[in-house]
Amino acid sequence: MYRWKKKIAPYLFVLPNLIIFSIFIVFPALFGFYVSFTEWDVLTSPEFIGLGNFIKLFQSADFWAILSRTLIYVFSVVPITFGLSMVLAIILDRNIKAKGFFRAIFYLPTMLSFIVIGVSWRWILGNNFGILNYLLDLAGMAPVNWLTNSTTATIMVIFASVWARVGYFMVMFIAGLQGIPGVYYEAAEIDGASKWQQFRHITFPLLKPTSLVVVVLSTIQAFKMFGLIKVMTTGGPGDSTTYLVQEIYQQAFQVGDMGYASAMSVMLFLILGLLTIVQFKVSNRGGNAYE
Amino acid sequence: MRKNLLITITALLLVGLMAVPVFAQKTVLDFVWFSDGVEGEVLKDIIADYKEEHPDVDFNIIEVPYNELNTKIKTMVAGGNPPDLARVSNPGELSSALLNLNDSIGQDYLDNFVESTHPYVMVDGKMLAIPIDVTANGIIYNKDYFEAAGIDVPDTEEELDDLWTWEEWANALEKVVENSDARYGLAYDYSPHRWSTLLYQAGGSFFSKDWSEVTINSPEGERAVEFFVELHDRNIIPESIWLGGENPNTLFRSGLTAMHFAGNWMLTNYRDNIENFDWGVAYMPKGKIRSSVVGGKFVAGFKDSDNKEAAVDFLKYFSSQEVNAKFCEESLFLSARTDNSKLNYSFGSDMFEIFSNELAVSPPEAGSDWAYNEAMSRIYDDIRQNIVKSIQHEITPKEAVENMEELAKSEIENIEN
C-alpha cells in the first residue's frame, strides 16, 4: 500500500498542472492542428479540405513576403538582444558604482506589458503628437516620420522589441557569469591572458548553456511578438511591419478564415521547432565547455 | 410546540421552494452592444421602459468595442452560447448564425425602412436583422480656421449649385493651412469605406449593382486613387493617418487639421469634446457626381438562442416608430425608418439635414457595394493595403485598382465554390 502511494504521489502532485496545461495548451493546439485541414468561419461547422489551406499558403506570394519580413525581424532582434544583454551583463557584473540602480533601470521594461510598451513608443515616435518630434522641433530640426516610413518603422519596431526584453536576458547572463569560478580568471591572469582572451576562452564558452537558453527564448519571443507591434504600428505603414502572428490574427478574426490562419500557425510551429532543434544541435557540437 | 415549529418551518421551506421557479422563469436576454457615442445610455432608458411593460424579461448588456464586436459574437456562437440579440453593422457577415425573421416579423415590415438598408438585412431571401439607424459619410470643418482664411464653406441648400469641385476643394484646403493655425487641411479616416466616397463621386464602384461584375478597375476607380494620393502628396492629408495609424479624430479635435472626413456618428463626440473652436458640417465636393456612402446599424436575433420569442418581441418594440424616434433623437442618429425622417434633435438639426441631403443624391452602388458583406469583409484590408501602397508610390493607381479587381474576383470565386 505504502509503495503504491509513493508511486502515485508524484503524479497526483503534477495532475492539477497537467489538467490546466491540457485544457489551455494541448487541446487547443490539437484542435488548431485539426482546423488547419478544414475550411471554417467559426459560425458554421468546419469542413474538411485536406491540404487545401497549406497549398493555398505555399502558392500565396503574400505569405512568402510576410515570412521573409518575419525572418528579417527575428534575425535582427535576436542577435542584437543577445549581444546587448551579454555586454550589459558583463559591465554590470563588475564592481562599478550604482550597479544595482543600473540593473534595475535595464530590467524595468521587462516588468511592463508589451501593450504598454507599444503605446509608450507610439507616443514617443508619433509624427504629430510624438515627444521625440516635439523635441526635434524645439531644437530647430525637421521632424522625422518615425512610424510612417517603412524603413524607419521597421527599425523602430526592432529597437522597441530589443528595449523591451534586453533586461530580462541581461539578468540571465548575470546569473551565468556569477556561476563561473573566479579561479579560472586568476589562472589566466597568471598566464598573462588579456581581457579579450579571458572573455573569448573563459567567459564565452562557459556561458554556452545560458547563451543557448537566451537564443532559444528570444527567438520564440520574436516570432510570437504581437501586442507591441499591434499597438505601435498596427502592422504598417501598409504591411511593412506585419509579421506572421499579425497575419494569423488578421486572417482569423478580420477575414474569418480560421482554417487558413491555423495552417499558418502550424507553419510557425514547425519553423520554431526546426530552429530550436538546429540551435540545440549547433550548441552541442562543441561539447561541454567545462570538459 | 416543537411540532408546530417544525410544521411552520417546513411550510416556509415549501413556499420558498415554490417561489424559486417563479424567479427562475424570468427571461434574461443577452444583448451584445457597442457604442459610438451616448446610445448605450439611451438603450438603458429604453430597456427600463420595456421592462415596466414586461416585468418577466431582463437584459444582460454585453458592451464591447466596435473593433471586437464580430470576434466576440463569433466566439460566443462557436462556444455554443450565442447571444439573444446583437447590434451589428454587417448582418451578412454573421448570416449563418442569425435568426430568420421572415415568419416572426415578416418581410413586409421592411417597407417601413429606407430602401438602401434592405440589401444589408436581406440575405438569400431571409430577413436577418432590423435596421435601426443609418449613417452617412461627410465632412466636418473648423469654422474658425475657414473664417480666418476668408473661405466660404458650402453648408446651406442655397449653395448646392455652387459646390466645390475636387480641385477647388484641395485648393481651399491648402489656402486654409496658409492662412490659419491649421497644420494640415484634412484628417481622412483610415478606412476603405470612407475612401470609397471618392470612388462614387468619381462615378465608379466596386461591383455592379447586382454584384454580378467587379467594376473597380475603371478610369473612375483609378481617378479616385490618384486624387487621394495627390491629397497626400500635397500634404493636405497628413500621411501619419494612413501610414502611421494616427487618430484622425484627435488631429481634428486638437486643431491640427481644418477638416475631418468622417460621418454623422462623430457629432455627439465633437459636441461633447470640442470646446475651443466652432465647428460645423459642410457639403462634400463633387467629382463627376455628388455622393456620400450609406451605412447602418442593425439589431439581430440568433437562431440558436434559447429566447427567440422574447428577442423577436423586443426587436419589434425597439424598431417601432416611437421607440426608434426616441433612440435616434437622443443618440443624435439618422433614423432608418421612413416615417422618422424628420426628428426633433436637441442639437445640430441643420447638420443632420446636410447628411440626409448627401444620402439622398448618392448612387445605389454606394449602398449595394457595402451590403455585399461576404465579399467586402474578405477584400477590405487588401483595398486598404493597395491604397497605402499607392500613397507610398510603391504602385501606381492603375496597378492598385487592377490588384483590387483581381483580388475581388478571386474571393468571389472562393465564395461561389
TrEMBL record, chain A:
GO annotation (BP), single: transmembrane transport
UniProt entry keywords in alphabetical sequence: Cell membrane, Membrane, Transmembrane, Transmembrane helix, Transport
A Pfam family of this chain: BPD_transp_1
Primary localisation category: membrane
Keyword Transmembrane helix: yes
Record field: transmembrane: 12-37, 71-92, 104-124, 144-164, 258-278
Coiled-coil regions listed: none
Recorded family membership: Belongs to the binding-protein-dependent transport system permease family.
Protein name (Swiss-Prot/TrEMBL): Carbohydrate ABC transporter membrane protein 1, CUT1 family
Organism: Halanaerobium kushneri
From TrEMBL, chain B:
Superkingdom of origin organism: Bacteria
One Pfam family in the UniProt entry: SBP_bac_1
Gene3D superfamilies in alphabetical order: Periplasmic binding protein-like II
PANTHER family xref list: ARABINOSE-BINDING PROTEIN-RELATED, DIACETYLCHITOBIOSE BINDING PROTEIN DASA
Name of this chain's protein: Carbohydrate ABC transporter substrate-binding protein, CUT1 family
Source organism (scientific name): Halanaerobium kushneri
